[in-house]
Design brief:
Elements (H helix, E strand, L loop, with lengths): L3 E7 L16 H17 L4 E7 L5 E4 L2 E2 H5 L37 H23 L1
Parallel strand pairs: 1-2
Antiparallel strand pairs: 1-3, 3-4
């Protein structure tokens, strides 16, 4: 069993909310984004499984049995400071990464998605360690 089990469930193309532009404009773009994250995790030696499923209902990402919104609920998300990075980054002007209402998973920011995956991984590690004791 993988330590991080990610499932992207989708039934239709995402719809843009009035006055907003989606961060991931299609199911394919969201799928490619998650596959890239999975590749990065595998490259880092993290056991991860990814599946994209077409189902009825709301589009969502489920990580280790919980939706991203459930994982992020109650987490304190801090934006990395410029001084925390060893090298300079390109400055981009975009919406606040924490600006996501949870209704459209395709609009989630990279910061929030990576925090959800990190939390799921940390919970999995904690459970694994408890089972060893």
């Amino acid at each position: 069993m993988a330590q991080v089990d990610i499932t992207y469930v989708h039934s239709k193309e995402p719809e843009c909310l009035p006055g907003k532009e989606l961060r991931h404009k299609s199911v394919q773009e969201m799928n490619d984004y998650i596959e890239h994250l999975v590749f990065e995790m595998k490259f880092a030696g993290i056991s991860v499984k990814y599946e994209s499923k077409e189902t009825d209902g709301k589009n969502d990402v489920i990580i280790n049995g919980k939706t991203v919104a459930q994982i992020l609920d109650g987490l304190e998300i801090k934006t990395p400071e410029v001084d925390d990075e060893p090298n300079s980054k390109v400055i981009r002007f975009e919406r606040d990464p924490k600006n996501w209402d949870g209704e459209c998973i395709e609009d989630i920011s990279d910061l929030l998605m990576k925090n959800a995956i990190s939390k799921a991984y940390a919970d999995s590690e904690k459970l694994r360690i408890q089972q060893l004791l």
